[in-house]
Design brief:
It is globular, with a radius of gyration of 15 Å. It has eight helices and five strands.
């Protein structure tokens, strides 16, 4: 029940972006594993920050670590609207999160945007660091972030951008 409530919370936070000029379907929430107290919440900012590593999970971990003034988040759980990609899951492992709970799956996201097709559980399994990975939770709800007409328009714009190079 707690996982469903937390996933709804990050879904609602992320859904607010659908009313902006830069909608994103990816959001993350980090809470204290024991108390449930919110530590940090964030959204994907790859386009806004012109940073391919500015995924919601990675940004939220960075902000949480900065707030706590430590690179370690043992004792915390992350909720994400989508299964973390390998980069984000590796970041969660390095931060020593207790647990990662996700909504939509990597396969769901791949229907709309580019993905690296390695499950978060597989990344965790191949690691020396321990982190439970649970999901999908509230999958159908989180999937609506991807299927919203405004997000579909954004996906089309993302896929038609040409690679920019400097000479």
């Amino acid at each position: 029940m707690v996982d469903e409530e937390r996933m709804r919370e990050i879904y609602e936070f992320t859904a607010r972006t659908l009313k902006t000029s830069r909608p994103v379907p990816f959001g993350a929430l980090i809470v204290n594993t024991k108390t449930g107290k919110r530590l940090m919440i964030g959204i994907n900012a790859v386009m806004a920050e012109s940073d391919p590593s500015a995924h919601a999970e990675t940004r939220t971990v960075r902000l949480a670590c900065k707030k706590l003034k430590t690179p370690l988040l043992a004792g915390y759980t992350m909720y994400s609207t989508c299964e973390p990609c390998p980069m984000c899951m590796a970041n969660a492992l390095w931060a020593r999160l207790d647990r990662v709970v996700y909504g939509a799956t990597i396969a769901d996201a791949a229907r709309f945007t580019l993905q690296i097709h390695i499950a978060a559980k597989e990344v965790a399994r191949c690691s020396d660091m321990h982190c439970l990975v649970d999901g999908p939770v509230q999958r159908d709800l989180c999937l609506t972030l991807f299927t919203h007409p405004k997000m579909q328009k954004a996906f089309r714009a993302w896929s038609t951008r040409k690679t920019q190079t400097k000479s």
